[in-house]
Amino acid sequence: MDKPLLRNLQPQMIQHRGKPAILLRDPLRLTSRAVALPAQLALLLGLCDGSRDPAGIRAALEIRAGVRVSQSSIESILREMDEALLFDNERFAAALAVAGREYRQAAFRTPGLAGESYPSDPDELRGFLRGYVEGLDPAATPVASPEAARGLISPHIDYQRGGAVYARVWSAAEQALASAELIVVLGTDHLGGGFITLTRQHYATPWGTLLTALNVVDAIAEAIGPDVAYRDEIHHRTEHSIELAMVWLHYVLGDRSPAVLPILCGSFDPFMESENDPSSDETIGEAVRVLRKAIAGRKSIVVAAADLAHVGPAFGDRYPMDFARRARVKGADEVMLQLIRDGDAEGFFQQLRDERDARKVCGLPPIYMMLRLLGDGRGTLLDYALCPADNQNTSFVSICGMLLS
User: Fold this and answer.
1) 278: which DSSP letter?
2) Is 377 a residue whose pLDDT tops 90?
3) Which among 248, 260, 340 has a CA at the least distance from the CA of 298?
4) Domain map of the chain by residue range?
5) CA distance 44 to 109
6) What angle do CA 214, 158, 116 make, to 5 degrees?
């Protein structure tokens, strides 16, 4: 191995054989292999920057951290990481190319969470979701004219924590969905990716396949360029945000089969870290133009599959979310939700940029895109919840359900 370059990973701290370790795995799941790196070797990750060979990495570990590891051990660790596709090299590129071909040649996008996050059996799944709907208080949160809804915000957190919010918003949207001809589903791309990532694959659920509006996909791809549109298409293969919305959509649709349009929306970090603004981005602007034309000619619903704040030690914050910090986060969420209800895409983005995205709102891109597509409108907040994200109840994710008319 020459000079290994680590890919953009999401390490997890774990206990391995009774000792702290860093769990490393390919976020694209191109392989089931994983590596548990001893915590004292954490510096090794930063040293795999493409500028050092194994001998240089070994020397830097000793000089910088006082950690002495034999040359053979370093080479063994790096070889194991390479086999787990953790480096940006020819091995990873070859595996990515194979996975991309297999994904595009399949008849549909396979539901990756069926049998794990929700039942894979159609009847069991129907009963599973019905349980959340039947558990709602029918007198809570009345909605005016739900048949006029043009958009909705649904969570993408697991059903076990967010089931009641999913149930409330999708039940409220049932009338509007009954006559919808096109349903645009905008999901968070947790792997980063481009601002707009398309796929020509149809999305399957345990009840069958929801057909993708290929004509609209092709029109967007032509407008923004196929290299941009499909560069990160493989992200659709494992991304859960759209999948969890599609399952509820299919549950509410029943036997109806309007066209769907799954679009992954990548990180807005480039806008957070510069003076640039999404309102002037050419790719976003062209995609919005084509999508507005597509939804203008038919009864359409735009879905933002989006969670809100991610705060606490589980998400890298230094301090646990005590009562006072929780109250501040809820207050900031309330301001944000009012901007969304007002249809204010730029105000929504500016609030998060002003606070340097301190709440780590992973639903920023799809919600922003939804607001740009719908233009002027008015939202009704149906539900809001704080979902625990660690066993100590010191971290949480906030979610909401909202209809927009």
Assistant:
1) G
2) no
3) 260
4) 12-100, 108-404
5) 37
6) 85
Each residue's pLDDT tens digit, 107-132:
999 999 999 999 999 999 999 999 99
Place of tokens 């799944």: 125
Percent of the chain scored above 90 by pLDDT? Answer: 89
Question: DSSP class of residue 3?
Answer: S
> Do 313 and 320 touch, CB atoms closer than 8 A?
yes
Of 283, 274, 168, 155, which Cα lies nearest the Cα of 226? 283
The CA distance from 25 to 86, in Å, is: 7
Strand residue runs (E) in 280-337: 300-305, 310-311
pLDDT for 2: 87
Query: Which three-class secondary structure state does DSSP give residue 256?
Result: coil
pLDDT at 148: 78
Angular region, 17: left φ>0, alpha ψ -120 to 50, beta rest: left
We find that the CATH architecture of domain 108-404 is 3-Layer(aba) Sandwich (3.40)
- Are 194 and 232 in contact, with CB atoms under 8 Å apart? yes
